[in-house]
Amino acid sequence: MEQRGRSFYVLGAFFGLFVLFLYGPIITIGVLSFQGPQGGLTFPMNGTSLHWFRDLFEQQAVGDIWGSFRRSLALALMVMVTTVVVSVLGGLAFRKRFRGSGALFYLAIASLVIPSILVSLGVGLIFNQLGFRVHWASSGYGSQLTWTLPFGLLIMFAVFNRFDKSYEEAARDQGASPWQTFAHVVLPIIAPSLLGVALFGFTLSYDEFARTLLTAGSYNTLPLEIFGMTTNVTSPVIYALGTLTTVFSLLVIGLFFLVVWLIERSKARKAAAPVRRPNTRRAG
To answer: Taking the model in full, what pTM does it have?
Structure first.
């Protein structure tokens, strides 16, 4: 019993150190972002204030912060929608074996093991050779899909591998068409998983740096803009920006969890609702 107690405390201490290592830098940046107007980039803090947060919303020569944020947000939404749609279609296609399915599967996830900077370089070179404009909404969009789509496909493959086909068979027995079966039976069941794929697509795109480095063209996304700021900004304003982007990411994750909770709550209500039976009595 005593040995078991010691193991518990050792594992607890190890987990605590892991959490500190994981979130310590984020907490440090958050604390330093509240430096006073005369504060620097390191401890000890020189007072506390919201000066550097206000500085972000003023006209300043530290880069195109809000323009890069809008580009990252738009790109993340584009990648998210595409990842969800293609992942669902791919998951449906791989429910049945077809010739070349194995090779196609490994080809689809091969980009996960290729260094990100090489993907960025390759996509940029292809666009230049074909005479297309290198831009965050074209080449940047394509290079990020090579990162998000494999994750989305793997999730949907797992979902459909354990999907109970009897639900679809019951719907078809009731006269439902293939589209009605998908829209009213399959889609509501896999909805939480789709939200997970969407969250993967959004967050992986929003903070992607390497695959966007050589494919964004002349307009930076937010990670590229922050990287550029590290070379010429010597005030805690960069910490304030990091704190705001972290809060934004947490709000996005919280929003997705809220939607999942609402979906599960709606399902529970429908399951608990009494079943209305049609009145079969004949008048007279």
So the answer is: 0.85
